[in-house]
Design brief:
The chain has 130 residues and is α/β, with parallel strands linked by helices. It has a single domain, classed as Rossmann fold (3-Layer(aba) Sandwich), CATH 3.40.50.1010. The chain has seven helices and five strands, in the order E-H-H-E-H-H-E-H-H-E-H-E. Strands 3-2-1-4-5 form a five-stranded parallel β-sheet, sandwiched between helices. Helix 3 runs antiparallel to helix 4 (50-60) and helix 5 (74-86) crosses helix 6 (94-105).
Length: 130
């Protein structure tokens, strides 16, 4: 299973020609793709109106839905953040730490277009879809 980050969904919905969007479209229908609850929040917050939000929600509902912020993971998320900070790396958004740690803990690959995930790959073992 592959978790698709909001960075990819947003580019997909805006028809931006990125490598990650091309990869998403290639994988759709061939691989099991998932979206996390917090990712749904991020995508729907960016909708310009209720009609667009409803359309996005219908599309996102077609994919496996995952609850990302699970209580047992909270200490691990914080620990991973500290491990990176000790190396001089600061992840800009807590939600990215949640997403990355969830993928690591559940052995999921992540399809993304966000520079904050590279240090998690390099130092924490996050698997990124290339």
């Amino acid at each position: 299973m592959i978790l698709v980050d909001s960075s990819v969904w947003i580019d997909h919905f805006r028809n931006r020609p990125t490598a990650a969007v091309d990869r998403f479209r290639d994988l759709a229908g061939r691989e099991v793709l998932a979206v996390g609850d917090l990712i749904v929040v991020e995508v729907l917050q960016g909708a310009r109106d209720e009609a667009q939000a409803a359309r996005y929600e219908r599309i996102l509902d077609q994919f496996v839905q995952l609850p990302l912020l699970q209580p047992p993971l909270a200490p691990l998320i914080a620990r991973n953040y500290r491990r990176l900070r000790e190396r001089g790396i600061t992840i800009r958004r807590t939600i990215d730490m949640v997403i990355g740690t969830y993928c690591i803990a559940h052995d999921l690959a992540l399809l993304q277009c966000d520079r904050d995930f590279a240090p998690m790959r390099d130092h924490l073992g996050l698997r990124l879809v290339e």
